[in-house]
Specification:
Largest sheet of chain A: 8 strands, mixed
Structural class of chain B: alpha/beta
Oligomer: heterodimer
Strand content of chain B: 5-15%
Distance between the termini of chain B: 35 Å
Order of helices and strands of chain A: EHEEHHEHEEEEEEEEEHEE
Strand order of the largest sheet of chain A: 2-1-3-4-13-12-11-8
Distance between the termini of chain A: 20 Å
Number of helices of chain A: 5
Strand content of chain A: 25-35%
Number of helices of chain B: 13
Shape of chain A: globular
CATH superfamily of chain A: Class I glutamine amidotransferase (GATase) domain
Largest interface: A-B, 51 and 47 residues
Low-confidence stretches of chain B: 1-6
Helix content of chain B: 40-55%
Shape of chain B: globular
Low-confidence stretches of chain A: 195-217
Strand order of the largest sheet of chain B: 7-6-5-4-3-2-1-8
Helix content of chain A: 10-25%
Structural class of chain A: alpha/beta
Largest sheet of chain B: 8 strands, parallel
CATH architecture of chain A: 3-Layer(aba) Sandwich
């Protein structure tokens, strides 16, 4: 049985951090920049980065529609920071396009500029006590407007939500190895497909060629 | 597991600093940071897909042309750009001018570029960047400059290139020199690492980290002379993780189109077909400068080594 393959949207942002972090849980990953690269993936990560940049490239690459179809397929999805913004039902500051799959309202940069970024304790019944989250120019969830589980809060604000198999975080679990939120996602992926391997596709800097579907390590 | 650590342990940084400052820079990867001089240009950059803008009064090509002392920008002008866009706003300070940096931090600029493009304020010392909450980016020509800046607290490194020339040759030289410097540390024993650290004037722990991990402990971006989508792709293929474009966009014939093309070129840096597509009909690029015509004094990359 082949191990499950996690597609990581790689238009811009910290997609490589997600790949490293998932490799730590023995998951195979593939960078996704074109509709064809969505074929055959068993789970999906929407990484951090700039949501305006990602939206523009999703449109240019003809990827907005195909990605939406995959998101509707009910596979495990982990969306962090900018990724969460893409999934929200309503986005403010400014108002922008999104998939509307998580019934939440998010305000971009809702905790302020980079000066206010940092690592904060999370309150949660499902994460181990003492779990923290790194918030970087993070979106703020100002309303949960429908059927959606709030798994963690920061000073009372929802910051980790789940609806079905969509897991969305305002913070960046990918910046900490072995983070419990990544573990939860890996669990969802593993439960889907049984045992997992441990392979990551990557590019070789300087060679000029992408090396995809090739294991390393 | 050590090599899977997304945010490396770096001697001299606390874990908190590392995650917050370097984590910010991680979010810019695979993106383009564009120089802008007013809110209108900032909006054009944002709409084109820039992952951040650099707010400054004059782009490097004009600084070069005008001469005189180039300083940090008017706070009003920076604030105008902060209001105009939702993406991160960076701004430049003179090398060693820690007061300009304190002012940018007070304005909550997202990232500070301690830049050789402005006239240096201190010929001996760079800003001690560690006490700041704001991440700093600094330029380098080689591994020694990169590690000295990281040791001073820089959370991101970029090549210096030769800003405001539209000529990528120096950025290529600096990126190749940096990457060769990293490779040359491979397999050195403790004695050799200590000698190297002494030569580069940085702590041996930092050199040992780079030797073992074969990369810089902070994101490694490119800047200085990028004018076309092909230039941007060239820098990415040489090892850059994102690209700064200074004069190259708003000194060209059709800035919005060129900006969109360079953004796409960075995402698909290893796909020549996309590069061909985005390079069609871009209009006039900025007029470049042949570096042989520049005197030693006119070379900005010699500043702050």
């Amino acid at each position: 049985m082949t191990s499950p393959l996690v597609g990581v949207l790689a238009l811009q942002g910290d997609f490589a951090d997600h790949q490293r972090s998932l490799a730590g849980f023995g998951l195979r990953t593939r960078q996704v920049r074109t509709p064809a690269e969505l074929d055959g993936i068993d789970a999906l990560v929407l990484p951090g980065g700039e949501s305006t940049t990602m939206l523009r490239l999703l449109a240019v690459e003809g990827l907005f529609g195909p990605l939406g179809e995959v998101l509707h397929r009910d596979i495990p999805v982990l969306a962090t920071c900018a990724g969460l913004i893409l999934l929200a039902d309503r986005v403010e500051n400014p108002v922008q396009r999104s998939y509307g799959l998580l019934p939440i309202t998010v305000v971009r940069n809702g905790y302020g500029r980079q000066y206010h970024s940092g690592t904060f304790p999370l309150e949660s019944d499902v994460l181990p006590s003492g779990t923290t989250g790194t918030f970087i120019r993070a979106p703020r969830i100002t309303a949960v407007t429908g059927d959606c589980e709030v798994l963690a809060r920061r000073d009372g604000d929802p910051v980790l939500v789940q609806k079905g198999r969509l897991l969305g975080a305002c913070f960046h679990p990918e910046l900490a190895p072995g983070h419990p939120v990544t573990a939860r996602f890996a669990g969802m992926v593993g439960a889907d497909r049984g045992t997992v391997g441990g392979r990551t596709e990557s590019r070789v800097a300087g060679s000029g060629f992408a090396v995809r579907d090739v294991p390393f390590g | 597991m050590a090599n899977h650590h997304p945010i490396p342990q770096v001697p001299g940084f606390t874990a908190e600093e590392l995650v917050s400052k370097i984590g910010f820079c991680e979010q810019l990867k695979g993106g383009v940071i564009m120089d802008v001089v007013d809110p209108e240009q900032a909006q054009i950059a944002e709409e084109a897909g820039a992952c951040a803008v650099m707010a400054l009064e004059r782009v490097p090509a004009d600084i070069r042309k005008d001469g005189g002392v180039a300083r940090a920008s008017d706070p009003d002008m920076i604030a105008g750009i902060q209001k105009a866009v939702s993406i991160p706003v960076m701004a430049k300070v003179r090398i060693g001018h820690f007061v300009e940096a304190q002012m940018l931090e007070a304005m909550e600029v997202d990232c500070i570029d301690e830049s050789e493009v402005l006239t240096p304020a201190d010929e001996e010392f760079h800003v001690d960047k560690r006490p700041f909450k704001t991440p700093f980016v600094c330029g380098c020509r080689d591994l020694g400059e990169a590690l000295r800046r990281i040791h001073e607290g820089a959370a991101m490194i970029r090549t210096k290139g030769e800003a405001g020339t539209g000529n990528v040759v120096e950025a290529v030289r600096h990126m190749r020199t940096l990457m060769n410097g990293i490779r040359s540390l491979r397999g050195l024993d403790g004695t050799m690492l200590a000698k190297k650290a002494n030569e580069l004037r940085v702590p041996v722990e930092l050199v040992a980290w780079v030797a073992e991990n074969q990369k810089l402990p902070v994101p490694n971006f490119s800047a200085g002379g990028v004018a076309t989508p092909a230039d941007a792709s060239l820098m990415m293929q040489l090892g850059a993780e994102a690209v700064f474009v200074g004069s190259g966009i708003f000194k060209s014939g059709d800035p919005a189109k060129r900006a969109r093309a360079i953004v796409r070129a960075v995402t698909h840096y290893d796909d020549p077909k996309v590069l061909v597509e985005v390079s069609k009909g871009l209009g006039e690029p900025m007029v470049g400068i042949n570096l042989d015509t520049l005197s030693e004094e006119e070379r900005l990359a010699r500043r702050g080594i």
